[in-house]
Each structure stands twice: as structure tokens, then as C-alpha cells.
Batch of 3 targets.
Target 1
Amino acid sequence: MIVNVKNLVKRYDQLVAVDHLNLEIQEGEIFGLLGPNGSGKSTTINCILSLLKYDKGNIEIFDKAMNPDAHDIKRNIGVIFQNVAVFEELTVYENISYFCSLYVKDNDEVKRLTQEAIAFVSLEDFVKYYPKKLSGGLLRRLNIACGIAHKPKLIILDEPTVAVDPQSRNKILEGIKELNKQGATVIYTTHYMEEAEQLCSRIAIMDNGKIIAKGTNEELKEMISIGEKITIEVFKMEETQLAELKKLPHVLSAEYNNTTLSIKSSKGNNNLIQILEYLTSQEIPFNQVFTEHPTLNDVFLEITGKELRD
Amino acid sequence: MIRLYLTRLKILGRDRANVFWTFLFPIILATLFNLALGNLYNTESFHTIEVALVESDDYQYLEEFKSSMLEAKTSTNGDGINLFKLTECDLDEAKSLLNDNKIIGYIQPGDPMNLVVKSSGIKQTIAKSFLESYSQTLNTVESIGTLQPQSYSKVLEDISKPMDYISLGSMGENPPDVILNYFYALIAMACLFGSYWGVKEIITIQGDLSLKGARINIAPIHKMKMLLCNISAALTIHFIGILLLLAYLILGLKVSFGNDLLYVILTCLVACTFGITLGAMVGTLAKKSAHFKDSILTAIVMFSSFLAGLMIVDMKYLVTKKTPFLQYLNPAHLVTDAFYSLYYYESNSRFIMNIALMLCYTFLFSFIAYIAVRRRKYESL
């Protein structure tokens, strides 16, 4: 096992930031920690890294107890923080080389790894640039290069795409997949459910310092009752008609607002057909029809009663 | 270690703000001091005293007195200038000249000699001293001539020798120079600016103070080794800055530091270390922003330099007189006093005391910083 966290508790005075958290991360996974801001994701990561003191629990990495002096463990960990942490006074090349040299002693090896990291994040044209001259997206790529240049076995990314443009975000996500393909285990914290769905092989959903659900994308969606979300453009609908619609088999809820009829149905076949048949029978004109499968937001909503984006 | 040290040197050397405050600001200030205070040397130099001699037929030694006044010089060396410029006139004209401030006073010859002045001052005092000296000498000569005529020729020979009327006082081999203290206080301030480097190093290495610190804390490198590396780099670059300032002061502005240049350099090195550890200690004390900590240090350094005489030279003496204990607590005073004692005193005891005090504070600050930095995990980030 790459990471094994048992009963982790971290308090800030009266506030319980991490509440008896258990986590097992296997080699080769891209493990997502998904949750809203303040749910305890970063605190958990900082405890795992032995940066933060914690009140209770055990943390093992690579099957060894993690502590601040565990240099052999640290040597195989790479961390990319949400905010860029590089030296303004060093160029792109010098920054990557400096952080790599904190992990690797051999000078030639540092040079080789630095070059590889530069190529990996496609910063070849900017090696002599100072961070101030880089755009936000390039700066994020530099931040990532500084964290992974020493080829770690475990890479921890703490919300690396916050405030990043879509193009750079895609580039970053592709890069993470590539690192995973090369053998690195990845822990990825985010509050963007789309990213977690797109990237992670397993996801733990956090709220108020607790893991409220854990599993693969599909497993998480299986946990909830919603099977399908149907949205239909309806120009006119009576209250009585809406009430009858709600009584149809598999319909869990139905709302009508400003020509939009939103229906959530439970798992089952032909849910859409029976709804459309009902609208036709009632001579209710409709236009566009959309259906979508439940998202992790629906999972979060059903478990906690609040939106993931709140 | 060497690679980390060299990279740290590079980082610090490219930090424009710190480089300005350490390298350029003291040099600019020294130049301004030199422009502003350079004229003080000229104003302190001696100018011939203009006096009037009221004509009198009653005084028998008038011609001898006139020639004594005209021959009096500031120094017995060849470079002495005339002490007096004499204007012979009647009493009314002398009064008029005095009222118009064209002379500092007028002399009414007689026994005793009478000097009339309008105000007191160094020139009036010199003129009065000259008259008293002349009168005493004349009385002595007259007495000897009456009582011991055989010694008369020897006495005349002695009193005809020229004498210095102005001399410099000093406790050591160097003459006193009030302007030097401004430059000493300037170097003290520049050395204490090292505190900015110290606070920067602490912020860089502390995981709860900066993200870079967090990044360094999760790397497989011993924190104290890293701090030692970084502080050494800061000391190197700061000390180079101070040496450049020293070179500028000695070679460019001709500021004198006495003859013990090695001790002067040693003082600078100790003061730089002292400044950096002061900053390191302040850096660890509170979980505040770098800007806040820099502001605290600016206040400490400037107030300390003020008390050491950077803005008003008399402040140093005032502090020494009124609150003597404060001079041992004031970092800038310790530095200026070390320079001062090197320049003025032949004994090194005062210099050694200042250096020892600086080293004690350096160890104390380092210890406090160490206690704070040695934490391996943080309560919060």
C-alpha cells in the first residue's frame, strides 16, 4: 500500500478539521479527494506530509511510518501546492534545478532530470524566463515541474488547477495522467467534480473533515437513488399535470420553472419514453429534451443535502 | 551543501530590494553625509581674529605689544596662520568697528590690558587669553629684571620663543572628529540592515510562514543544515556589501577608521552577523507577514541608529550621560562605539567589550531563533 491513514484527527481548538479519517491508497492509483472548500482536504494532505501536527491517528507511506525525519520516504514524494511556490529571483531552469537538487545529490542527474521536467511541462522556450514574465498557466506548469522533477513515486497535487484557464487545465490533467502511466501514484485534491470524474480511478468525497463516500466514479453513483436526470423544454404546464407526472413510476421528483421541466428518475428502463408519452397524452407541447446521468454533485447532494459547489 | 549555498547566493544577489538597502542605500547616504558635513571641516578651521588697538601714548610698551600680537600664530609649525589682524584707531572708531561687527573687540592698552567685546565666543576667549598671557609675562619679566638682573637675558630668550595658541586635545593618537560618528553610525545602520536578510531566511525556511518553506520542509533535507546554508549565504552577501561601503568610505570619502583596519573589518563581520541573527529572531517571533516584520525591523534599526547619533551626533553623548545602561542594549551603539574605541583609544579593552557584547547578543538571538525553527511540525499552516 502506498498510503495508509488510520483514524486521523486534527483539531484547531474547537473545530475538528479532520474527523477520524481513514484512507488506503494503492500503488498506481489516481486517488481523488473531492470536497468543497473547507472540507479538510488540504489539512489531510498536510498531515500526511508531516507538515501539520495532528491529534490522533497513524499515517504510513510506502508501508513505513511517516514523520518529518523520514527522508527515505520524502525522497519519493512530490508535492504540488495550490499556490505557486517558486523563487522569483531564479529562472525557470534554475527553479526546477534547485528544487530537484533538494532530492537528488548527483549534479549530472539533477541536470538530466531538470531537462526532462522542462520537456514534460513543455517549458523549453521559457527556460531563461523569470517567473514574473510567465503567464498564469505557464507559472502553474513551472510549479508542477518543480514538484515532479525528481521523479517521485507518489505525487500529491493540492488543487493545482484553481484559477487556471481551460487550456492550461487540460494540459495539467493530461500531464497527471501521463505521470500516472509512467508509474506514479497520484493523490489529487479538488473541488471540481468534473476533474475528479475525468481523472481519478478512485474518489473519496469529503465534507466537514469526514469521508462521506468512497469508491470509483461508478460505485459512487450507484450509491444514490437517482438514475437519470431529464430536462424538457415545456411551454405551458398546469399544476395538476405536474402532480400527475410526479406519480409516474420511477419519477423521484419533478419541477417546472420558466418553461423548463426538470425530472429526476430512479434507475430503470424507458423512463424518458413514459414521460414523453404522458406529455403527448396531455397535449402538452414540448421542444428540446436533454437527459444526463447523475454526477458526483448529485452524489454529494443526496448524501449531505447541499450542493458540492456551496 | 555547496550547491545549495551557491544557489542561495544567487537568489539573494538578485533580490533587488534587499540589495538596494544593503549595497546602495548606505553608499548614497554616505555621499549625502559627505556633501552635507564636508563643509563642517572648513567652518571649524581657524580664521584670523580681527581686533582693534586703541591708540594710546600713555602705554610705554605699545610697540612691543603690537609686534607680539602681529607675530602670534596658531601653530609653531611652519603652517601656522596669524592669530590676529590688528587695526589701529582711536576709541570712537574702534567702537564703531565693533558695532558693525568688523572686529570681535578692541584693546585699550595699559596695565592691566582691557579687552572690550560685544559677545562671548571662542575668538573673544583667545584674544582675552592672549592679553592675560602677555600681561603675566610682562609682569614676570619686570619682576625678574628688578630682583634677578643676571637671569634677565635668559628669560628674554625663553619668552621670545614662539608658542602655540591653538592645540587639539585627544585621548589617543588620533585627533577628535565629531563628523566621524555620523559615518560610524551609518555603517552600524547598514550592518543592522542585515536583519532584513535574516527575516527573509526564516520566512523562506518555515513551512508555516511561506509556501516555499512548506516545499522545503517536505524535501528530504535537514532543516538546520538548510538554514545554516541560507544564513551563510546571507552573511556572505551582506558582508560583501558592507566591505564595499567601507572601501567607499575609506578610499572615496577619506573617512578615517584609525590604523587597525583588520579590527574594523572584524567589527563589520560581527555586526553583520549580529544584524542577521536579530532579523532571524524577529522572523520567528510572530506569525505575521514579511512586510510587518520588515516594518518592525526598520523601526528597531532606525531608532537604534538615531540613539547612536546617526541623525544628531549629540544624541549618542546624551544617551551615554542620561541612560548609560541603554548604550549596552542599543545594537547600533555597540557598533559605533567599537569603531570609536578603535579610532580614539590606544587600549583595546573598550573595543573588546563592544565585540563581546555583540557576540553575546548574536548567540542569544540565534538561540531564540533556533528554538522556534527547530519545530518539525506546525500547529497550522
Target 2
Amino acid sequence: MPSGSIYGYIGDQMTLTQALFMGLLQGATELFPVSSLGHAVLIPSLLHWGFKQSDPSFVPFLVLLHLGTAGALLFIYRSQWVGIIKGFFTAAVRGRIETPTERLAMLLLVGTIPAGILGVYLEHELKNLFASPTAAACFLIANGFLMLGAEVLRRRAERRAAVTAKTRVEQEESFGAAEQISFRAAALVGACQALALLPGISRSGITIGGGLLAGLRHEEAARFSFLLATPIIAAAGVLEIPQLFSTAVPWAEYLAAATLAGSAAYLSARFLLRYFRSGRLDPYGWYCAAAGVISLALLTFRP
Amino acid sequence: MALVVLAVVFLVVAGLYAVGVLQFMVSDPNASHHYTHAILFSVLAVASLIGANFARAKRTG
């Protein structure tokens, strides 16, 4: 048995370093609008690592990474989630929305349902169809242009609204908060999450872009995206928990990777919420387009 | 009323998926239970009931 390897479980090939790297990668790229699935498919392939995330034996590892990421999101928004859950039950029983938090709770329900339906029915087919590194590179390019397109439309909306603020922060303040999004827009943004089943399409990128088109501030679009992602990521993790006990799992290595994923997700979310006070999606759009093109070239021309 | 009926239908579908009778669009047709699908339809049932309650409150209020 090679030293430091999670030997005999993930295709006999993933070392502890690789596991920790994958944890860090998953945690960081899950929230950055650059597609975690795309990176998880592309990077091992480009580095000639033998394991495949589509391999069924990889599921317990992914489950823990997702739980780590969901844990970080729940921790960041812990007080908001308490309010959202209370608001959900209050509004559901009363049959009427009276506060912004109750409205946000219902918006999250409306946004989660289409993502849940599409995720449950399409996940297997989409992952099987497009799990190749070449497809991931192509979708990464598409993801980049989708985000750049969303910013082009946003700038147009800013010009139409004749936003004449001195700073970007002031300019952003003329747009709405997550609680103000329409139910139809919430459902559409939620449905867009399903596109993230395609490796290379970023869940946060597509939902932040959707939020921008619905008239949200960048920071609020990111908040709505993260809140919307939490139930889906957590559910995906929790539903697969039985898999953790179905086979012998190297707990220490897996938990170390999950902790790293959670820490990376926490730091990523903190950074992004600060960044989007004045920043735009453009740098991530250009990054995805460039990373996709470079990956495609490397995959095509490598020896 | 229509939403309540829909909720009942969703609950029945959830039950059928849970016991493995319904095999519509599942990733593993050999699996005896499809809990993910069952949970999804249970959530849809709850959402339908909430929608029905909202509609009732709007009518009476």
C-alpha cells in the first residue's frame, strides 16, 4: 500500500494529497462562478490523475465534500436561515406573506422546486452524456460567455435606468435586494441551476447572472444564489449519506478533505460577497472562456 | 381545491416511488426504493398545500 494513499477505495489511485487538493478545489469552485464540476472533470484529466468523479466509488467522497460546502454556507447564513425557516412556517400556516423574510422563504421554495425536479430527472442522463473533459472544456467556454452576456445586459439596464452614480457601490444601490425579486424570476433562476449539471456550467455563475437580469444588486444576486444553492447542495449530500456506510470509508482522509472543502467554501463566500459590492462577473467570465480554450487545446494537442 | 387534489396526487406518486412500484425515469430501475424521487414529490405535495392555503386566504381575506 503506498504511503498516504486512500488505497483500495477510489480506484486505488487517489493519494491523500490529491484528496485534499480535490477538497480545496471543490470548496472554492462550488461558490466561485467558475463551475466546480467542470474543474473537477478537467483538472484530474489534465494532470493525468487516474480516478474519475463519475466512478460510483467516488460518491462517498463527493458526499462529504458537498456536506462540507453546505455546512459552510449554513454557518455563514445561520441567522438568516433561522429567520427563513421561521418565516416559511409562519407564512405557510397563515396563507399570507407579511415580511420580507417570509417572502424570501417562499422565493427560495419556488426557486428550489424547478431545480429539484430537473436535478432528480436529468442528473443521471446529463452526467452520463457530458462527463468527458472535452465537453467540460466546451461548456466552460459557454459558461464564460453566458456570464459576459449577463453583464452586457446588465450594463444596458444601467444605461436605460440612467444610473448616474459616482461610484460603483452607489450605482449598485439603485438595484434591488433578493427579497424583491418576482416569483416568476425566482422560478427561472432556480430552473437555471439545473444547467449546472452540465460540467463546465457554474451554478453560482448562472444564478448570479439570472439574479442580475431580474434586477438584483450583484451582492444580492450572490446572496440569493448562495441561499438557493444551500438546500440543493445539502439535500444532495444528505440523501447520499447511506452510501457512506455501505462500504469501508477512509474517514480520516475524507473528513480532512471535507473540512478543507468547507473552509475553502467559507472563505470563498466571504470573499465573493465583499467582491460583489462593487465587482462584476466579467473577470470570471473571461477566466472561464480562457480556461476552457486552454483546456480544449491541451486536451486536443497533448501527447 | 385543485391544489389540494394535486397535493394528494403528488403524495400518492411519492408513496409509489418510495415502495418501488413506480420506475418512471429512474437512474437504477433495479433499485427497490427511489427515495430521492419520493422526497421530491413529498416536497411538491407540501408546496401544493401551501399554495392552496395561500389561495384560500386570498379568497377569504
Target 3
Amino acid sequence: MRVQVRFFASLADRVGADVESVDVPPGTDVAGLWSALLGKHPGIGDLRWRPMAACDLVYAEWDQKLDGVEEVAFLPPVSGG
Amino acid sequence: MVRLQAEPIQVEDLVRAAGSPGDGAIAVFLGTVRDQSAGRRVLYLEYQAYAPMAESEMARIEREAIARFGVSRVALVHRTGRLEIGEASVGIAVASPHRAQALEACRWVIDELKRSVPIWKKEHFEDGSVWVEEEEPRGEGGGDPP
């Protein structure tokens, strides 16, 4: 199955893009997707923080399955305000 | 009313959006761009948002503030893009029949926004720039604008 992955702030800088389509096997969870991304983008391997994840615009746990999810975003610690 | 916008925040618009004849108080908060961060001179800031999620989180905060504090209405606006020193990056107006609830809710809204809304700021210095990404938000009087 194919999910749209979005990156923000320094994560987008490290990946070199702010959006990417990724094919993952059915049953993959957020952590599995992140592992697949680590293989493609070694630059995201040495972060000082763990990104938050959001599935279809809602914060998600790392063990959330991606079946039926269209968009996953990986979010650095937020700094609005 | 919640909104992300590239244009400057107009306090009168916030007040107009929040207030109604039944209210006796409107608490207004502006977070502004400071000219220094941890002792370094800041030239300007750049804000990036995950826009659809940021707006839905801001709408959740609006609903939750009304439910938790019993206030009448909340107006919450955040800027995106480049901001100069002194400009408001975030504006909040909370209207309520009485002042205590408006003030408490206003404080809660800014704290909750800083905790959960997917917006990031990049500080631009004379010799480079850096995304502000820290797991524990710095407190009042710390390095980043409120």
C-alpha cells in the first residue's frame, strides 16, 4: 500500500524534500514506516529528539497501523507561538 | 475563530471575532518576535506550519477552552512565513462574561498551542539560521518568544 509522507522543518531539510510517496506492506505501523525511511535517508538517523507522528492530521502512536491511512507526517518538536 | 495567515495580525479583528454583548471581559494576548535568542541577535523569524493539521489542532483548542473554562468565544490566529522583529506571531482573544475565566483560558490557550500545534519557527541570525526544535519548551523569560 502507498502512503504519502510529509516532513517538516529540519526533517524536510535532512530528507531534501517535504513530501514523498512510500510503498509499505499491509500491516505496517508508523515505526515500520520510519524504519523504511531511515534506510532511504540516513540523514534522519541521528536526531536529538524522537519525531511525533500524525496519521491523516491526527497525532498517532508509533504502533498505529497504516492500513487505510493516506498521509503520515513526521513532526519535529513544535515551536509555534 | 481560528486561522493561519501570512498577513499581519489585526488586534481589532480578534476582539471583534471574540466579543459579544453578553461579555464583560475580553482577554487579549500577542506573542511577538524578539530581537535576541539565547544572547544571539535575531534578524527575523520564519514560521512553517503543517497547515491543515495546525488549523484542526487550533480548532480543538478553541472548543476545549470553551468547554473547560466556560468562556463565550475564542479567536486564535497564527502567522506563517517571514516575520520581522516586533511583529505579532500569534494573537488570542478570549471573551467571557467575567474576567477570571477569560484570563485563565487565554493563558491555557497559548500554553496548549505551544505544546501541540504543528508550527515551527526558524531563527535567522547574521551568521546562519536554525530551526527551533526542542523537546521541552523553554519557559517564560527563556530563549523563545511567548
